[in-house]
Every structure is written in C-alpha cells, then in structure tokens.
Specification:
Length: 274
C-alpha cells in the first residue's frame, strides 16, 4: 500500500492511501483519504478491518494517530467503515460522522468499543477539522449508491471526495492514481455504475451539485482520481448514464414474458399448469 500527497499548501494537506498489491484477491481495492490542517486530521472512508494495519502504517508516516480528530463514513458498507472501532481505539475523543439513517447500522461495527456516531442531516452540514477554523462540507449524494450517502467538499484544496460515485474496478497491476485516458477508463467504471447506482435521477442531481461546486479534483473511493479536463468529462458521462440495471443490454420487458438464465418465463402459461 502506498500514499500520495494530492494537495499541500501552508498548513493544509490532502493525502490518499491505496493500491495494496499484497491484499487478498477477494478484498476489493479502496482509496482512503486524509485531510490535514494545522496537524489535525479527518479521515474519509477509513476502510475495512482487513486492511486496517496497512492503512495505519502508511498514515502514521504523515501524522500521529492522536491527531486524527474525526472519521467520516460516506455510507454503511463494510469496505469503507468496518474498521471504525479500531480507529476509535486509537483516539478516545474521535468523532465519527455518517448519515443519520446509518447510525444504528454502523454501530454494529463497534466490537465492544464505545464510539459516538454523529448523524448528518439529509441536507448536509459543515464541520471544522478538529479545533481548527478549516471546514469541510458534507454534500448530499443520496441513492448514489446508498439511500443515505454523502460526498465531502474541501474549499481550501478545491477537492470533492465522491465516495462510490466515479468508482472503478481496476485490473491487477494498474497503479495510476489519476485517470490519464478518460475514454479507456470508462470500461472500468461502467459495469459498476450500472449495477450499484439505482437512480439516474439521483445521479443527475449529484452532477448538478458537483458542477455548482466546480472542483479541481473528484476523488472516488475505488479506482483513479479525476483532475483537470477529466473532471468535466466524468460529469458529462455520468449525467447521461442510464443506471439501475444489472445487465448492460437490458431493455424494458413485458413482466409477463421475460427470459433469464437461458429459459423463458410466461406467467399465463405457468398459471395454466397448476
């Protein structure tokens, strides 16, 4: 696992941790992001239990664990949040932010550790990074792909963390942290978005928010980062994507006459066989 500095200016820094060549093949690759201001930090989507030691080792090359003041979970999935209790063990004053609808679900990752979950209201909110005056903004991203979901915008770095929006499942050996050729990158994103994003309308609403923000970078939780002209290329692609389908070629079908697994189902005929 390696880390890379995405932004550094004065006391403000963005760090991404990812690309773990030693992980088990069954474990999906993830990106963990850290925003540091005046040596106080918020950790975005801290990752699963399985990769906690590797993330911790890499993170402590940049900041002490006692200076991690908050953790943000964009939604409830184990690949982004099942390590919460382990991070809470390192800091008794750790604040954990998540959508209010997932508080009771993320509590199941407690493993006997007492950590406080702060629910984010549906319209989002702003929080300070530790005791500093620097703020990050939790941007609504509901139904993209979770019913309670948020992105994070940092106006100092002008970076938008998008969670699973823009996620790509990269092949083994692909280590580029940034998207270089957007057209060729689509094949790593498309199947994921068709299956895991349930609402085209929700995606378009998020695209409108992202365009209003107009960030320099969009950082997803899986895959490569969009920067420069690839930010608009990604938003344009996402805006016209028809999602909520498990099959790329799936068309509207008559619910009484459909085919799957190679055989045809006809409800009227099935009823006549009773």
């Amino acid at each position: 696992m390696k880390s890379q500095i995405l932004f550094e200016e004065g006391p403000h820094k963005w760090l991404v941790i990812g690309r773990d060549d030693d992980k088990k093949k069954e474990v999906i690759d993830t990106n963990e992001y850290v925003i540091i201001h005046n040596n106080e930090a918020i950790l975005l989507d801290p990752g699963g239990i399985e990769i906690f030691p590797q993330v911790l080792t890499e993170l402590t090359r940049h900041i002490s664990t006692e200076n991690i003041k908050a953790v943000f979970a964009s939604h409830q999935d184990p690949d982004i949040a099942s390590s919460l209790a382990l991070w809470a063990d390192l800091s008794t004053d750790l604040k954990v932010y998540c959508s209010w609808i997932w508080q009771g679900f993320l509590a199941h990752f407690g493993m006997g550790t007492d950590f406080k979950l702060t629910g984010i209201p549906d319209d989002g909110m702003a929080v300070n990074i530790g005791s500093t005056k620097a703020k990050v903004y939790f941007v609504p991203a509901h139904y993209c792909h979770s019913s309670g979901n948020f992105s994070v915008y940092d106006p100092i770095a002008d970076i938008l963390f998008s969670g699973d929006i823009g996620a790509a499942l990269l092949p083994p050996g692909e280590h580029d942290m940034f998207v270089s050729d957007f057209s060729s990158h689509i094949k790593y994103m498309e199947a994921f978005h068709l299956r895991w994003m349930p609402s085209s309308r929700a995606l378009r609403e998020w695209v409108n928010r992202a365009r209003a923000i107009n960030p320099k970078m969009i950082c997803p939780q899986h895959g490569s980062i969009f920067a420069g002209e690839n930010v608009n290329k990604f938003l344009n692609w996402l805006e016209h994507l028809d999602v909520g389908r498990w099959n790329k070629g799936q068309e509207d079908v008559d619910i009484y006459h459909t085919t799957w697994m190679g055989w045809r189902f006809d409800k009227s005929l099935a009823k006549n066989q009773i």
